[in-house]
Amino acid sequence: MADTAVGMILQCTLRGQQDAQTTLTVLHFRLEADPTPAPIYAALGAFNTHISSGVNNLWTRYLNCISNVWEATSITSQIIYPIRYVGQSLLKGGEFGSVSGTALPVGNMVAITKRAEIAGPHGVGGVRMPGVPTSHAFESMVTANGFLAYNIMALELTDNQTPTGGQNWNPIIFNRSSPATSAPIESASTQPQIRTMSRRVVGRGI
Question: pTM (2 decimals)?
Fold first, then answer.
């Protein structure tokens, strides 16, 4: 398989289940520094390990927003630009959200809005947070405790990811029509109203 190169875009999918429905949270990163290019397959594995190992990482902060009735399935990373390569998955079965207690029904989610410096539709994006704990919701609004958890996750979404080897993956708002111009994320914030997403595919909630 080919080696990594600056400018490649990585798509990371955090996958889980609640009430037999699959949930997906999708993130994008662009490789900004690559002092020691590595085979793509190895680099994807290193990325998955980096975001989910130790403490105060992206995966931990993600789980800290989610009810323990939600079970993780996998973290899957894939290079999607300039060429789409086979992805690499890290299985996460047996891991659960970190918030004790029940969750709102599948289809309810908290939205974190990502913003770039540029104006217009390509300067704003969103992240869907599944498994909303009932303790984080009141009358369709995020509670104060919920904001504490979601805002930490929002801050994490602005941080570069630096796996072993010196690679620097910068979080971006993916522009499907022009991937090369995808803008870096400058800020992220939790939306106060809990949203309901319609289910488009049988067996897939969010």
Answer: 0.93
